[in-house]
């Protein structure tokens, strides 16, 4: 599948909105991306542990009494600005994010501790436009049958994992843990002058699959992780469109807890 076909799939997502918890934002989206070979890795973390590393303006969402820290490696394909085609150079690179979850004004979203990318151009653009903690890293991906091998290195941070799907795709049902962890259509960040900012995103429901993963090296997390096995899911592809960043209403939401 080529860059233009992926870009067409991104634009087509706006025709599927019944699953969204709130309507699409007003105004046009500004950027499209296709994400492939994703692994969702999640650990339970005590809320007080995350509270020390999450800005105080952002509440921390919990599920079953626990906060959650996620690491998500994937490949970006066909990145482009609206009304322009994906370019042969710069539209494809690897990305790995470390995140937790927050809700403001009934809009569940994601807070990123870090986002590593293999493209210096993408890092510079995202830092300037979205004020996100992007970093350039040396990254590699390889396929061996169904297995994906993924490595990332940046200073003292390391990620090395092998993973593959281990079951049929499904869409997470509202109220489930899988829905809580993945079906979020907004990212939040805190700007030193403008306060809490957000950017809306849109995609179809996640085509999640159970996964098998071997985590060989991991120093990405900003807090100590528990020794228990993480929860892992795979997703083969997701087409995404993104809106420009905006200021978020100043009132701070209460801590959100789910079932």
Question: Briefly, what is this?
Answer:
The chain has 259 residues and is mainly beta. The chain has four helices and 15 strands.
Chain-wise SSE layout:
Layout: H1 3-12, E1 31-45, H2 47-51, E2 62-63, E3 67-81, E4 93-104, E5 107-117, H3 120-130, E6 134-136, E7 138-144, E8 147-154, E9 157-165, H4 177-182, E10 186-191, E11 195-202, E12 208-218, E13 231-242, E14 246-247, E15 257-258
Parallel strand pairs: 2-15, 5-6, 5-10
Antiparallel strand pairs: 1-3, 1-13, 3-4, 4-5, 7-8, 8-9, 9-12, 10-11, 11-13, 11-14, 12-13
What does this molecule look like?
This protein has 259 residues and is mostly beta strands. It has helices at 3-12, 47-51, 120-130, 177-182, and strands at 31-45, 62-63, 67-81, 93-104, 107-117, 134-136, 138-144, 147-154, 157-165, 186-191, 195-202, 208-218, 231-242, 246-247, 257-258. The strands form 2 sheets. The chain has a 7-stranded mixed barrel. Strands 2-15 form a two-stranded parallel sheet. Strand 8 and strand 9 form a beta hairpin.
Tell me the radius of gyration: 17 Å
Sum up the overall morphology in one term.
globular
Average pLDDT works out at 94
State the major sheet. Answer: 7 strands, mixed, barrel
DSSP, total strands = 15
Beta-strand fraction estimate: over 45%
Strand order of the largest sheet: 1-3-4-5-10-11-13
Distance between the termini: 40 Å
Structural class from helices and strands? Answer: mainly beta
Helix content: 10-25%
Low-confidence stretches: none
| H and E order | HEHEEEEHEEEEHEEEEEE
Number of helices: 4
């Amino acid at each position: 599948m080529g860059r233009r076909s992926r870009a067409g799939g991104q634009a087509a997502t706006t025709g599927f909105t019944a699953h969204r918890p709130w309507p699409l934002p007003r105004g046009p989206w500004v950027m499209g991306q296709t994400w492939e070979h994703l692994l969702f890795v999640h650990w339970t973390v005590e809320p007080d542990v995350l509270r020390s590393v999450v800005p105080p303006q952002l509440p921390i969402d919990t599920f079953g009494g626990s906060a959650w820290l996620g690491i998500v490696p994937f490949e970006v394909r066909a990145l482009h600005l609206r009304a322009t085609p994906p370019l042969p150079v710069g539209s494809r690179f690897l990305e790995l994010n470390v995140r937790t979850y927050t809700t403001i004004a009934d809009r569940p979203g994601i807070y990123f501790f870090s986002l590593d990318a293999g493209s210096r151009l993408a890092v510079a653009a995202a830092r300037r436009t979205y004020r996100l903690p992007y970093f350039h890293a040396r990254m590699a991906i390889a396929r061996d049958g169904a297995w994906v091998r993924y490595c990332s290195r940046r200073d003292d941070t390391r990620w090395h994992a092998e993973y593959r799907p281990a079951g049929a795709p499904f869409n997470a049902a509202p109220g489930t843990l899988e829905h809580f962890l993945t079906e979020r259509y907004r990212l939040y960040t805190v700007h030193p002058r403008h306060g809490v900012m957000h950017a809306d995103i849109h995609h179809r429901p996640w085509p999640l699959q159970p996964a098998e993963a071997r985590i060989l090296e991991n120093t990405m997390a900003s807090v100590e992780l528990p020794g228990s096995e993480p929860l892992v899911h795979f997703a083969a592809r997701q087409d995404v469109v993104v809106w420009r960043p905006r200021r978020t209403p100043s009132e701070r939401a209460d801590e959100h807890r789910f079932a």
